[in-house]
């Protein structure tokens, strides 16, 4: 089975739903077992986590990490179709195409005896429950490795940085009045929209770094009012901020708190992902990718966050690396069919060439990370 056919099969499962996630995980488990790959599974909040191993028990451990879940879509988006080089459908790019190639690369790794490969397939990377993810739980239970590759979309570049996450719920208060006399009230929904526009213009939003031209600010949800004929006196909104590795989330919160008539009632933060360009595993992966695509692999920064930070916080150097595509989370999500095979080849070349690469350069199997300095996430408040 090639990567396209395997990706198409995975895409037929609507893995935004728990029952389909379980069915897809059973397929992944059975597919790997049929190719002599040792597979285990565990549950997390009722969802399946698949772990598979190939290669020697005593070799350097490389983790292939991916997620099986997708964001919701219309039923027709779970019927894959091919137009030219594009495989189109929900999950093609984020990230069932990469997951299929990782499954194949794990199977390929059975035939080598120098590097241990662990394939970790999780069911909840897209979950809104950001404080209880299966990747974090598996790492907390002791999973470690020498290097991790998360198959998020990168267009065959190597993502050595990713923005941090600052998610806040903001409460705005107004004054109630009859809906026929809005001038007697103070509309909290309108005030919330104005507050969001002010957040967009704060100084932190105009900053840049060597890999990012700006942070991103998204109004994800807004809700207010409790009656049709009443001026709303309360409104809340969820704001999703992806901040730069060079920024302090505490300072961002301080700027937001300075906006009048606004209260932050809930806050979640996740640190940016950063790994050194000179990490020996990153350099070995770069060489393998350059060989597979006949071009020099670039180190890039990723706007979106991923579970790669979970490995980095545990001392495991990790990057994001995935195939070519576009439109993830959108109606025309696609992945390049040709890039799936190049991606599989790059992963295989990396595994086979890693021991020699390290020996020739006299590198040990050490983690070389550049953690971002972070300040208080409460904006200086005790």
Describe the structure.
The chain has 2 domains: 3-162 and 272-361, Aminopeptidase (3-Layer(aba) Sandwich); 164-270, Alpha-Beta Plaits (2-Layer Sandwich), CATH 3.30.70. A 6-stranded mixed β-sheet has the order 1-2-6-3-7-15, sandwiched between helices. Strands 4-5-17-16 form a 4-stranded antiparallel β-sheet. The model is unreliable at 364-382 (pLDDT under 50). The chain is globular, with a radius of gyration of 23 Å. It is of the alpha+beta class. It has helices at residues 3-11, 18-33, 92-108, 134-140, 188-200, 249-257, 280-293, 308-313, 337-361, and strands spanning 38-44, 47-54, 61-67, 81-83, 86-88, 116-122, 147-150, 158-162, 164-173, 216-224, 234-243, 262-270, 273-274, 299-302, 318-320, 325-326, 334-336. Helix 1 crosses helix 3 (92-108).
Quick tags:
Aminopeptidase; globular; 382 residues; alpha+beta; Alpha-Beta Plaits
Under the CATH scheme, the architecture of the largest domain is 3-Layer(aba) Sandwich
Q: How many discrete domains?
A: 2
Q: How would you state the average pLDDT, rounded?
A: 89
Portion of residues in beta strands equals 25-35%
CATH first level of the largest domain = Alpha Beta
Q: How many individual helices?
A: 9
Strand order of the largest sheet: 1-2-6-3-7-15
């Amino acid at each position: 089975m090639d990567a396209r056919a395997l990706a198409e099969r995975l895409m037929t499962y609507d893995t935004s739903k728990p029952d389909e996630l379980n069915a897809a995980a059973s397929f992944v488990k059975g597919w790997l077992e049929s190719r002599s790959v040792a597979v285990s599974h565990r549950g997390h909040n009722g969802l399946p986590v698949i772990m598979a191993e190939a290669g020697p028990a005593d070799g350097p451990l490389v983790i292939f990490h991916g997620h099986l879940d997708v964001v919701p879509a219309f039923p027709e988006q779970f019927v894959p179709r091919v137009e030219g080089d594009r495989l189109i459908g929900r999950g093609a790019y984020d990230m069932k195409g990469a997951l299929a190639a990782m499954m194949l690369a794990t199977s390929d790794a059975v035939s080598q005896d120098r590097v241990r490969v662990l394939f970790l397939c999780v069911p909840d990377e897209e979950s809104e429950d950001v404080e209880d993810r299966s990747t974090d739980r598996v790492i907390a239970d002791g999973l470690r490795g020498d290097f991790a590759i998360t198959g998020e979309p990168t267009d065959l570049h190597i993502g050595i940085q990713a923005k941090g996450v600052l998610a806040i719920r903001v409460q705005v208060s107004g004054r109630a009045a009859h809906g026929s006399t809005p001038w007697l009230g103070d509309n909290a929904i309108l005030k919330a929209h104005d507050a969001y526009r002010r957040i967009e213009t704060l100084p932190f939003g105009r900053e840049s770094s060597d890999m990012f031209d700006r942070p991103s600010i998204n109004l994800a949800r807004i809700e207010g009012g409790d009656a049709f004929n009443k001026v709303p006196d309360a409104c809340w909104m969820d704001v999703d901020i992806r901040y730069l590795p060079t920024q302090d989330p505490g300072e961002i919160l301080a700027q937001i708190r300075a906006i009048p008539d606004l209260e932050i009632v809930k806050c979640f933060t996740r640190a940016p992902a950063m790994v050194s360009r000179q990490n020996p595993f990153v350099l070995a992966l770069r060489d393998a990718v350059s060989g597979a695509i006949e071009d020099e692999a670039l180190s890039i920064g990723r706007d979106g966050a991923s579970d790669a930070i979970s490995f980095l916080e545990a001392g495991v150097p990790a990057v994001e690396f995935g195939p070519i595509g576009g439109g993830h989370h959108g109606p025309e999500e696609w992945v390049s069919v040709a890039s799936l095979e190049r991606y599989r080849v790059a992963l295989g070349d990396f595994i086979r060439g890693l021991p020699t690469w390290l020996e020739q350069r006299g590198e040990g199997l050490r983690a070389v990370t550049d953690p971002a300095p972070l300040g208080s996430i409460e904006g200086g408040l005790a």
